[in-house]
TrEMBL record:
<keyword id="KW-0812">Transmembrane</keyword>
<keyword id="KW-1003">Cell membrane</keyword>
<comment type="similarity">
    <text>Belongs to the connexin family.</text>
</comment>
<dbReference type="Pfam" id="PF00029">
    <property type="entry name" value="Connexin"/>
</dbReference>
<protein>
    <recommendedName>
        <fullName>Gap junction protein</fullName>
    </recommendedName>
</protein>
<feature type="transmembrane region" description="Helical">
    <location>
        <begin position="77"/>
        <end position="97"/>
    </location>
</feature>
<keyword id="KW-0965">Cell junction</keyword>
<dbReference type="InterPro" id="IPR038359">
    <property type="entry name" value="Connexin_N_sf"/>
</dbReference>
<dbReference type="GO" id="GO:0007267">
    <property type="term" value="P:cell-cell signaling"/>
</dbReference>
<comment type="function">
    <text>One gap junction consists of a cluster of closely packed pairs of transmembrane channels, the connexons, through which materials of low MW diffuse from one cell to a neighboring cell.</text>
</comment>
<dbReference type="GO" id="GO:0005243">
    <property type="term" value="F:gap junction channel activity"/>
</dbReference>
<dbReference type="InterPro" id="IPR017990">
    <property type="entry name" value="Connexin_CS"/>
</dbReference>
<feature type="transmembrane region" description="Helical">
    <location>
        <begin position="178"/>
        <end position="203"/>
    </location>
</feature>
<keyword id="KW-0472">Membrane</keyword>
<feature type="domain" description="Connexin cysteine-rich">
    <location>
        <begin position="134"/>
        <end position="201"/>
    </location>
</feature>
<dbReference type="InterPro" id="IPR013092">
    <property type="entry name" value="Connexin_N"/>
</dbReference>
<keyword id="KW-0303">Gap junction</keyword>
């Protein structure tokens, strides 16, 4: 799968981000996207073929695998990366709207189309809320689908057509668990960064509005 579009999106968002926002972009690009492409994707590449049960009953192994891994970790991780990056498009589209509006009117309507103020501030805050919400949703989804953030070495399966309880073995459980913990840790870090940026922007523009009102009252 080509991730060039996501790389370009993150590069575009970086132009209009605050300092905390640029840290978020760096974390997503360096510690999530590159780790996924360089290492994690290969670890889960043959997860179905390497899942083995101590029985030759036709269909048993497939049913057990589908039960314990209803969605592939790596595909869910890829979906998470795409979904948490998508709200940033709102900011890019809003800046593009401002620039096109200036071209249409053939005059300077904004001091800087990429400056976070007015309607663009609202769009930026909405994108932060959406990114934080999606991160939390995916963490809960991971936890619910796999009964916690762990990869067991051995699972016992008694689902039909298995004639009895069979032992099934997961390949490279320790390696997979390390990457799963890394995924959870980076998601939590991104949530903290998003909430920090959200608080910073709200505080900054609340102070700005308060000072404006105070100056008007004095005048």
């Amino acid at each position: 799968m080509s991730w060039a579009f996501l790389r370009d999106l993150l590069s575009g968002v970086n132009k209009y981000s605050t300092g905390i926002g640029r840290i978020w972009v760096a974390v997503v690009f360096m510690f999530r996207l590159l780790v996924y492409v360089a290492a994690a994707e290969n670890i889960w590449k043959q997860e179905h073929d390497e899942f083995e049960c101590n029985i030759n009953q036709p269909g048993c192994e497939n049913v057990c695998f589908d039960h314990f891994f209803p969605v592939s970790h790596i595909r869910l991780w890829a979906l998470q990366l795409i979904m948490v990056s998508t709200p940033s498009l709102l900011v890019v589209f809003h800046v593009a709207y401002r620039e096109n509006r200036e071209k249409h009117h053939k005059q300077k309507l904004y001091k800087n189309p990429g400056k976070i103020d007015g309607g663009l501030l609202c769009t930026y805050l909405i994108s932060l809320i959406l990114k934080t919400g999606l991160e939390i949703v995916f963490l809960v989804l991971f936890y619910k689908l796999y009964n916690g953030f762990k990869i067991p070495r051995l699972v016992k399966c008694d689902i039909k057509p298995c004639p009895s309880t069979v032992d099934c073995y997961i390949s490279k459980p320790t390696e997979k668990m390390i990457f799963l913990y890394f995924l959870v840790a980076t998601s939590c870090l991104c949530i903290v960064l998003n909430l920090s940026e959200l608080s910073y922007l709200i505080f900054k523009y609340s102070i700005k509005c308060y000072l404006k009102r105070h100056v008007k009252k004095r005048q």
